[in-house]
Amino acid sequence: MGKRVAVVLAGCGVYDGSEIHEASAVLVHLSREGAQAEIYAPNVDQMHVVDHVKGQPTQEKRNVLVESARIARGNIKDLAKVDVTGLDALIIPGGFGVAKNLSTWATQGKNCIISKEVEDVLKAFHAAKKPIGLCCISPVLAAKTFPGCELTMGHDTECEKWPYAKTAETMKELGCKHVNKHVTEVHVDVKNKLVTTSAFMCNAPIHEIYDGIGKMVKEVVRLA
């Protein structure tokens, strides 16, 4: 019997939801590891909707659960109904939806608030000593929920390859240990059973991002 892994989505699209390539990579690699993905999303309105052609917000309203169902091919549940006892691990892909719909990171940075549903799920998996995998921007959820945890968001020196490196510095300000890792690498916080990788925090070829997420998934399943 394969491991059952909860995958929490934040909408559909990099600028206002889950990063689709990251979410897809997680699902492909879980399948490769013989694990069963159970997909969840909160039944709430998105912070806003972004036109992905123009990169500009629109007046449209969309629901996080409804939009996430696009990635899940309709096979999705309300995050409020998650039962940690029947699951072996948790993975949350990145995308701006994490910073807009699962938390207020986009507007408040290190002073942000994590959605209560998301925080409760993170704490439940952590209390049950079940592994949590996070990539791209989603490690900020761990930084706020598990003070002093270890994680990676790639590198902490900003350059063309690492355009979002200041986020790594913010992790340190929150009291976390940030570990520099290449996009194809992961960091494992053994104490907290936390596995992180940088994904699109790095300006890298998509296959390298895919490979890094694969290592994250493999390690999460191994720890489960």
TrEMBL record:
<dbReference type="InterPro" id="IPR029062">
    <property type="entry name" value="Class_I_gatase-like"/>
</dbReference>
<protein>
    <submittedName>
        <fullName>GAL3A protein</fullName>
    </submittedName>
</protein>
